[in-house]
Structure formats: C-alpha cells, structure tokens
Write a structure and sequence with these properties.
alpha+beta, single chain, two-stranded antiparallel ribbon, binds magnesium ion, binds adenosine monophosphate, 12 strands, 13% strand
Length: 475
C-alpha cells in the first residue's frame, strides 16, 4: 500500500510574498491517534495508507509526500480589536491542496508542525489537549451541519511540549475549503499592496464563490456566508471565543477551535475564554463582532470596488449594513427549524426570544431544552420548570396555526441530542494525557452522530463540581 495524495497546489502558485515556503520540523517518535477514514476517501486518499510509516511521516511533518509544497501563509489581523500587522502561520504548514471527489478544492494543513518565520516567540508546536479538542469539536460541528474545517488525522509526536507544565506534543491535520481569512486581505491592505489584494480576491472568487462577478459581489457573498454561519453557531449554543479577524474564514467555515465551547445552561452573555475578560466575544455578541470583522474586510476591498473612494465607501457600507437583516433572517430560519415551525409569522422572533429569556431565568440546559421540545420533555431541562409553562401555551397556539403536523424528522435534525460538552472534553483530554485514548474515541464516535442518543450519559449536563467555567487558548 503506497501513500498517494493527489496534490494540486494553487495557493503556492501565487506570488512569493503571500507565504514562506519551508519544510516541517521533524519529530522524534510519531504515532497515530486517529485517522478520519471517510474524509480521507473523500479527498482521494487511501485511509489505510495514512496509517503506514509513510502516512504517519506525512501527518507528523517528518516527510512531505510527493506533490506537497509546504508553506506558511502570511496574514495579519485584529486581535480583540487591537491591530497586529503580521501574524501568519506560526505553528501550521499548508502541505498543499487536493480537489476532492465532489470537485471542491481543499487545503491540507498540519497544525503543530514546528516553527516558521511567523512564529514570533512561540515554539510552533501544539500539545495533545487542543489537538483532540479540535478533532472532536470540528467533526461534531460538521455532523450537525455547520460549515467548518475538518480533522483528517491526529498524531502524537513522542516529544514533550512545555506549557504550564510538560505535556505530550501532537499534530493535527486540518482540512479546509481554504485557510484564507479576513486577516489575509488585511495583511496586504496594510501594506498598500493593491495588486496582491486583487490577486487574492480573484483566487477566492474562483475557489469559493465562482458565480460572483465583482469585488462588491464577493463582499456580499462573504456577508451571506457569515450570517448563515453565526446563526448556526447560535442555534447550537456555540461560542467561538476568539473571533479575531485572523480567525474569520472567507469561505464561511468555522476555523480555529481555541477556547471555543458549547453552553450547558443558557446564558445570553456567556463567555468561557479566560482571555476574553471584557466579554467581547460573548455568545450574544457574535453577530455584532461578525459585522465588525466584515467591515474590516470591506475596507480591504475598497480599492477594488471603485477608483472613486467615496463611491467605494458608499457601496461597501451599504453592503455591510445589510448584515443585521441578513443575519436576522438566518437566525429566525435556524430557530424556526428548531421549533418545528414550517411557516413564518411576524412575531416568531418574539416567540424565540421569549423562550430564550425563560431558559435563562429558569437555568435551562440549552441543548436539552430544544431536544425536549419534540417530545414534551423540554421543561425537564429547567431548574425551575414552571417558568416554561406560559411559553408552552403560546408555542402550542403557534403550532396550531400552521398547516399539517410538525415534521418531527426535520425537527430532530435541527436539535442535536449529544454535543461535545466541556466537562466531557476535559475528561477525555485528561485521560489521553494519561495514555488512555478510549474516552476520546468514545466521545468522538457519539458526537459525530449528534441526533442519536448512543450514550445517554453524554447528554447529561455537568453534575455538581463537573462544570467547566473557563476555557483556554491552549497554544
Ligand atoms: P490563534 O490565537 O490560535 O488564532 O493564533 C494567533 C497567532 O499566534 C497565529 O499567528 C498563530 O500561528 C500564532 N501561534 C499560536 N500558537 C503558537 C505557537 N505555539 N507557536 C507559534 N505561533 C503560535
Ligand atoms: Mg488563528
């Protein structure tokens, strides 16, 4: 069995100033934790070949397979609103791209593969915790129908990474529609490199939005994609935690699973990330932050939109101002599906908001409230179940006004039963650090079938003392 990856690398054909070409830094004793066989096959890669010595050499960065052209991408970004003119892949390498079985071009990237010219003070490495976290959460997001980067494989390196303490090193192989971010455009905009912005925009249009015919059309398409994405996050209680412009993918995929988390008990202003002290990236702030990020993207595109600066600003502003309406429509569609509503009424947003405020007042588990709506057990997710009663009457009246029965299958697909809960993730990581990967495999297997109750224990909110209050970037 020989490893063959059908590379076709388009980003590497862009000008040299878009990246730093370099090999990965080898590791001592890599061994495989997991391979995503279905994804491998979709990419035209034999999953069994990934488990051979050659496969593990690729997945650990010890040898680049034929056709790979490893490079670290340059980008900039606003981090917590503060401008960083140069970030770039400091612990990641793009091995190359493949065109998958459905004709879509996908990046294959190693994360944790060693230092690059963009590493600054970092060691270029990743430890096991964030690698397993991203593996589980990104695949769960995909299974729930949320656009996301994917996990192709995880390996341990056989080396130690020093964080607060020595921890096992690991490498994640990530697959994405592309790793081009708002921050990639900002990198060139900050340097006044209009030619590069034009090349990047053309690259992105060809790759992600082939029906788009103008820079303004690209802005509109990215606004639509982000509206859809953020609405879907809110629909599963997901808090990204670091919505910096360098973590905002132009493709509309969720990218960079750092301190992200799903809520257990619903709280509109919920924050998990230890470094998000001001709550900039709180659950209910995510749509506002998306607008902020899109405004940065729009600013980068101004020189392409029109030679007349005022006209460009007017057109870009108009596009960005479309976001709230566009997002509201996506959000209502997401939550209507969760409630099993197949028609639209003017007061639906009020009905949804009323449910959410009762959930907050009643200490309700987000996932289990929605999962319980289909079978009449929603109140059981509340600490104070009677808070839900008046709402259930309004809800029943609303259901009675729509034609036909509730499509319970559709409602099931809108309301996951099992999500990767924080306390389960932490327990899984602790076990893996101790050498036991069974909880990782078990949690992964359950969360990629989120609509089946394969393990009822995994649907339980954290018990006393199990609740995770903070998450960490983990770099
Ligand atoms: P993130 O917060 O994960 O989006 O990363 C922000 C920036 O820090 C990116 O440029 C990363 O490549 C870089 N970075 C994060 N962790 C490391 C690390 N361990 N070594 C080098 N660079 C890193
Ligand atoms: Mg990042």
């Amino acid at each position: 069995m020989t490893l063959h990856v059908p590379f076709d690398n388009s980003y590497a054909r862009l000008p040299e100033r878009f990246f730093a070409r370099q090999p990965a830094d080898p590791v001592r004793a890599p061994s495989l934790i997991a391979v995503n066989a279905d994804l491998a096959r979709a990419l035209g890669i034999d999953p069994d070949a990934l488990a051979t010595d050659d496969g593990i050499a690729m997945l650990s960065g010890n040898a680049a397979p034929t056709g790979a052209d490893p490079l670290a991408q340059a980008y900039a970004g606003h981090q917590f609103g503060g401008w960083s003119p140069q970030l770039g892949d400091g612990r990641a390498l793009l091995l190359g791209e493949v065109v998958d079985q459905s004709g879509q071009r996908r990046d294959i990237q190693l994360k944790g593969s060693g230092r690059t010219p963009f590493s600054r003070m970092g060691d270029g490495r990743a430890w096991l915790g964030p690698v397993l976290r991203e593996y589980v959460i990104s695949e769960a997001m995909h299974a729930m129908g949320i656009p996301t980067t994917r996990a192709l494989a995880a390996v341990v390196t056989g080396e130690t990474v020093l964080r607060e303490r020595p921890l096992p090193g690991a490498v994640l192989t990530r697959v994405a529609a592309s790793h081009i971010r708002v921050g990639t455009f900002q990198y060139f905009a900050a340097r006044g490199d209009v030619e590069a912005i034009r090349l990047l925009a053309d690259h992105v249009i060809a790759r992600h939005y082939p029906t788009v015919t103008s820079p303004l059309g690209l802005l509109d398409a990215v606004i639509d994609a982000q509206s859809d994405l953020i609405a879907k996050w809110l629909g599963v209680g997901f808090i990204h935690g670091v919505m910096n412009t360098d973590n905002c993918a132009i493709s509309g995929e969720t990218i960079d699973y750092g301190p992200c988390a799903f809520m257990d008990r619903y709280e509109g202003g919920k924050v998990f990330s230890s470094i998000d002290r001001g709550g900039r990236y709180a659950y209910d702030k995510q749509p506002d932050i998306a607008v902020w990020n899109l405004a940065q993207f729009a600013t980068c595109l101004l020189p392409l939109i029109s030679d007349d600066r005022d006209q460009a600003v007017d057109q870009a502003s108009e596009a960005v101002h479309r976001f709230p309406q566009c997002f509201a429509e996506c959000w209502q569609a997401t939550f209507r599906a969760k409630l099993g509503l197949n028609t639209a009424e003017a007061n639906d947003a009020l009905l949804i908001d009323s449910l959410l405020s009762r959930m907050e007042a009643g200490g309700a588990d987000f996932t289990n409230t929605f999962a319980g709506l289909a079978n009449g057990t929603a109140a059981a997710a509340f600490h104070e179940p009677e808070i839900l009663d008046p709402w259930l009457e309004d809800y029943q009246a609303r259901l009675d006004r729509q034609p036909g029965d509730v499509d319970t299958d559709a409602m099931t697909r809108a309301n996951p039963l099992i999500i990767p809960r924080n306390h389960q993730i932490e327990a899984m990581i602790a076990a893996a650090v101790g050498g036991d990967f069974a909880p990782f495999h078990h949690l992964h297997a359950a969360t990629i079938q989120p609509f089946n109750l394969t393990d009822p224990d995994l649907a339980l909110p954290p018990g006393p003392g199990q609740e995770v209050r903070q998450t960490f970037c983990g770099t």
